[in-house]
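Exercise 7. Given the components listed, write out the predicted structure of the assembled complex. Treat all entries as one system.
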Amino acid sequence: MDRKKSRNVSDYSLNLASSAKKSSSQLRLMTTAQKNGVLRRLSGLLLDPEQQKGLLHANERDIEFARENQLSSAMIDRLALTEKRIAEVARGVEEVVALPDPVGVTGAFRVLENGLRIGQIKVPLGVVLVIFESRPNVTIDVASLCIKSGNVAILRGGKEALHTNQAFFQLLGQAFLDEGFESMAFFVDKPDREIINELLSLDAYIDIVVPRGGYGLIQAVTEASRIPVIKHDAGICHMYVAADADLTMATEILTNAKTQRPGTCNAVETLLLDAGFAYKRELLESIRQHKVTLKGCSESQRILPGIDSATEEDYATEWLDLILNVRVVKNMDEAIAHIERYGSGHSEAIVSNHYTQIGEFMNRVDSAAVFVNCSTRFHDGGQFGLGAEVGISTQKLHVRGPMGLEHLTTTKYLVMGNGQVRG
Amino acid sequence: MDRKKSRNVSDYSLNLASSAKKSSSQLRLMTTAQKNGVLRRLSGLLLDPEQQKGLLHANERDIEFARENQLSSAMIDRLALTEKRIAEVARGVEEVVALPDPVGVTGAFRVLENGLRIGQIKVPLGVVLVIFESRPNVTIDVASLCIKSGNVAILRGGKEALHTNQAFFQLLGQAFLDEGFESMAFFVDKPDREIINELLSLDAYIDIVVPRGGYGLIQAVTEASRIPVIKHDAGICHMYVAADADLTMATEILTNAKTQRPGTCNAVETLLLDAGFAYKRELLESIRQHKVTLKGCSESQRILPGIDSATEEDYATEWLDLILNVRVVKNMDEAIAHIERYGSGHSEAIVSNHYTQIGEFMNRVDSAAVFVNCSTRFHDGGQFGLGAEVGISTQKLHVRGPMGLEHLTTTKYLVMGNGQVRG
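Answer.
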């Protein structure tokens, strides 16, 4: 990168970030009614046939570009907008309107010995940088969650969806203007990769980065960022079937956890079968009937001929597909050791009827969520009753598990006195 | 760094971090009684005259080295141990024993429509890397907080306190052994700077980094780390005296906030005087009587002759000394604009009797704590009733304000069913 380009990138990024920070002192003070007003207007614009035409037109440009560059048809399908998909995006916005505003919520105030009254309230984080890949609906999903929680979003989508994202972003700005505010959302409208790195260094202006996408994106952001990152990482999820598990229950849960939506992070990737479980063969046969390819240890290959051999790397892979690793383990200790070695700390399940063993599994397994006799597919903000989610966090700081509106806030202490000083 | 040294650093760091992670599956399951046992034994060792001799002896080596290298007498004083200081460290450990164990605390369990019972419990973070400067008592302070919260600590102190820290660390290991456990605390016993950078890249083993020290240390760690950082950053704290403030109250609070312990992060650095406050001169005269050097705007220089001129840089400086910036502002808007520009989001105070104005100040100022008619010096875990603190966080993720034992934990969802699958 020559010096002039480098200066342009740096001016562009600094201007974006500092404008976002400036907007933030206004947006964080907007009332719930004002924020909902903007969101309702946005949903209205999304449903307006004229605007939809514009969105579809912009989307066509991206699709054309994708075809020219021979992107896979799966990629093109994820990219493509239809009137129905736009209506779904609008419905998502309405759902955010319906959620309670997390800002301003206070816990109990305490009165200290010296008469000070002290309490904590929830306040917006400030400026949120969201970096995401291809699916353009994310633009509006995440922007609505940010607005509802009083945060200014800086949105950076994939370059293959640039025109579509730009069109969505324009509606967002329009919604602010129509409600009598200046636009308080920002968009990175240049594809240069250097802009991301520059933004990731501006920790004086940006409070948090949320990368949504594949392993590569998340690693690159973590590596480069000076700003705190909320990761939504891989789900290498395990299911341990104990010696005295019920076969029917184990079959139903495994089928659901593996096949209901194999492409999601909470789908099971590895089955750990206790050697003492009498129906190992039956369970393996039944899951194979669902067109699941099995990759297993030598013992599982002995039990059910025709299973491929699993490598070390297979056990560390998030398949996101109809593939299941299988390992026969001597006991729960061996199952937990396997989870500690290969797991990503997302979701692990046990199927068992042994009370003490279940308690020990819940205690020893250190993951965002541990499931007893139910499917890992329940690991989801909506299912857990949090409403819309930004994603599922596999990190331990700030939020672990589904990240909802509440986790887009921080706290502020309020301390009220009448002249107290410290002795 | 030649290749061989680089391999040594990398082996050493990886070995340390992976051993810590291994210990963590054991330490996080220790009961409160077991953890308190280790801590009580540690306090006993610290009070044992034989052990104290060893500590003082190790400390002498560091002091000698410091004298040879002509460290300032203030630095040498911070480094020096005495029997009394060791007893204080032991008392600190006993205080941690007395705090409630944050681990295992559960919120309410909910029962969902589908019969799933869902709850969240607090669990240790895992492995905590603590990087700190000179004061050797921090070794034991932080290690006790980590042990009590079920975390394995990797301790890295300043090289000028290496022998003292090593001696403290040996007692820590001894306390584990005496209670029948293997030692589950780790210590970086080589001074090489490269080891820190290497450790900061090992996010597969280390869950969180807590840098405790000056601005330089915190910036360097933030820059290099792939591991989430809990910053304990600068406190550029402001006090705004409104038009209708009470002079006596303003004087008492300002004196306390500036002079009671000027070297702390919650001391006030800048006084913002409302132009409408009638007693500006009296307030400035009274604080000057406490040997505080004033640096002010032209208006404040007009009000009280002899005030030095304040530069832009002065307003952005954490003095940690008997120096106070002064600016006369037209109104509260100007005061808040000044805080937004120069503040570090730590602690800001308002002295006023105007109800509506106070409410607006509390609402608009975005800092970890906002103080009304009381001293910023109250910003402290002990004062807020949290018990011992790791430090005061100025970041917005995970914890903002005093970081107590509770913030050394994360959460784990427990979901219990009887065969539920997702539809």
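Discussion: The CA atoms of residues 88 and 137 of chain B lie 9 Å apart. Chain B touches chain A through 66 residues (CB under 8 Å).
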